């Protein structure tokens, strides 16, 4: 695996070769590698984005429907709509090709009738998608709101997810893991600069985008739990393996819960299993481990991992929020910014452990992961509820039945189950969530 700089600026996604972008590479290409992810350092300014000029274009809901067509004229005129790629509880995702350029996108059609009374939850996600423009984030291209449906033209990421990239590669080293973290930290830094917290960062939501020149980069998707931080948040939501201790403790949290999740992912990238896990599906035991935050790097799995990587992970997984790294700290860390590259050429036997600990198997196609991320809506996540901890300083929530059903994915897909926690596709939400 290697992250390389795309050479073409004609990608349908934001290009890493924008003249205003900072272009630093993290080493040369590895021979025998089957993956090449873009490691270009991207500035976080929204003005540097050089994607389609109509991104975020909103159509009036008074526009007519084409005769004989089930799609609004403005959408059908600009795009050729194809087969269904994914069918969820509240949304259908179809193939979508821009007629003028031939670029492939995904058309997400949300049924408003099914969302009646909860439209604000959908609009909350869309309002955030309108604001974010970054090469390491799955983009909203344009939208149209009609009386019965909301149409979202989304970037279609067809290279699989983070675990797909690792398990399908011929060569995987610390250098590759550090470049993956750089892509993720770049997205987080950008979001946090806008006071946006994602709250559901996990491998399934990190997609591999394949640039026209053959290079690749990671893109963060699924903003169903994302929100603007204007003060302490208390909604107990996220995915168990990646959830931060302050969320479980219900003492109030903010942007740094994303850094914790990124730290968990970095740990997994280097050894193939999470730092905090429990036997069976004992979620409370998992939460107790997370609250204690007793980090360990067990032998022999960590014997060949650099001290710099361990120091970085320790900084990202600090239980005391004030002591935890920020996204800027992560990007500036020597393990991420390119120092000491020669120490990180050792082959990491991670793929097998990921398959074992996450019960991870091959998907129907590489497009599956990207479609799953687009198909999900905030309403799907609302059906997933954390088993709440009872604290005296927290108003007790009413009793809700615990949902064990996964977020609906395209037909034929089975969510991955994690070692020591419910399936990481089981994103859960507090019954008292403001969303």
UniProtKB/TrEMBL annotation:
Q: Which segments constitute the Protein kinase domain?
A: 79-336
Q: Which SMART domains match?
A: S_TKc
Per the record's keyword annotation, is Isomerase included, yes or no? no
- Gene3D superfamilies recorded for this chain? Phosphorylase Kinase, domain 1, Transferase(Phosphotransferase) domain 1
List compositional bias (Low complexity) regions by residue number. 11-21, 28-39
Which segments show compositional bias classed as Polar residues?
1-10, 420-435
User: To which species is this protein native?
Assistant: Nothobranchius furzeri (Turquoise killifish)
Q: Which reaction does it catalyse?
A: L-seryl-[protein] + ATP = O-phospho-L-seryl-[protein] + ADP + H(+); L-threonyl-[protein] + ATP = O-phospho-L-threonyl-[protein] + ADP + H(+)
Give UniProt keywords alphabetically. ATP-binding, Kinase, Nucleotide-binding, Serine/threonine-protein kinase, Transferase
Q: Which GO terms describe its molecular function?
A: ATP binding; protein serine/threonine kinase activity
UniProt-recorded name of the protein: non-specific serine/threonine protein kinase
Q: Where is the region Disordered?
A: 1-70, 394-435
Superkingdom of the organism of origin: Eukaryota
């Amino acid at each position: 695996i290697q992250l390389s700089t795309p050479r073409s600026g004609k990608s349908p996604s934001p290009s890493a070769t924008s003249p205003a972008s900072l272009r630093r590479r993290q080493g040369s290409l590895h021979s025998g590698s089957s993956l090449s992810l873009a490691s270009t350092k991207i500035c976080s300014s929204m003005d540097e984005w050089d994607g389609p000029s109509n991104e975020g274009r909103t159509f009036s809901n008074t526009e007519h429907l084409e005769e004989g067509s089930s799609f609004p004229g403005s959408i059908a005129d600009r795009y050729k709509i194809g087969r269904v790629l994914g069918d969820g509880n509240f949304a259908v995702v179809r193939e979508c090709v821009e007629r003028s350029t031939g670029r492939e996108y995904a058309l997400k059609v949300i049924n408003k009738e099914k969302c009646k009374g909860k439209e604000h939850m959908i609009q909350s996600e869309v309002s955030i998608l309108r604001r974010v423009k970054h090469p390491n984030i799955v983009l909203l291209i344009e939208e149209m709101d009609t009386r019965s449906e909301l149409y979202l033209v989304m970037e279609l990421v067809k290279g699989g997810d983070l675990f797909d990239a690792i398990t399908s590669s011929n060569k995987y080293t610390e250098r590759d893991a550090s470049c993956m973290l750089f892509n993720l930290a770049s997205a987080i830094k950008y979001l946090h600069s806008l006071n946006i917290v994602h709250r559901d960062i996990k491998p399934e939501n990190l997609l591999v985008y394949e640039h026209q020149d053959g290079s690749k980069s990671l893109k963060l998707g699924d903003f169903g739990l994302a929100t603007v931080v204007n003060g302490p948040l208390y909604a107990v939501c996220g995915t168990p393996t990646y959830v931060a201790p302050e969320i479980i403790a219900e003492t109030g949290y903010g942007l740094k819960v994303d850094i914790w999740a990124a730290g968990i992912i970095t740990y997994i990238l280097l050894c193939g299993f999470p730092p905090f896990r429990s036997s069976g599906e004992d979620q409370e035991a998992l939460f107790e481990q997370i609250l204690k935050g007793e980090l360990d790097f067990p032998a022999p799995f960590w014997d060949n991992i650099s001290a710099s990587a361990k120091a970085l992970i320790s900084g990202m997984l600090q239980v005391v929020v004030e002591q935890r790294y920020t996204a800027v700290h992560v990007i500036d860390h020597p393990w991420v910014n390119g120092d000491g590259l020669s120490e990180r050429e050792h082959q990491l036997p991670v793929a097998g452990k990921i398959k074992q600990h996450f019960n991870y198997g091959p998907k129907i196609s590489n497009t599956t992961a990207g479609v799953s991320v687009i198909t999900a809506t905030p309403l799907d996540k609302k059906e997933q509820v954390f088993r709440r901890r009872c604290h005296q300083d927290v108003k007790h929530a009413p009793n809700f039945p615990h949902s064990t059903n996964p977020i609906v994915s395209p037909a034929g897909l089975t969510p991955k189950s994690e070692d020591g926690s419910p399936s990481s596709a089981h994103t859960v939400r507090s019954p008292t969530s403001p969303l």
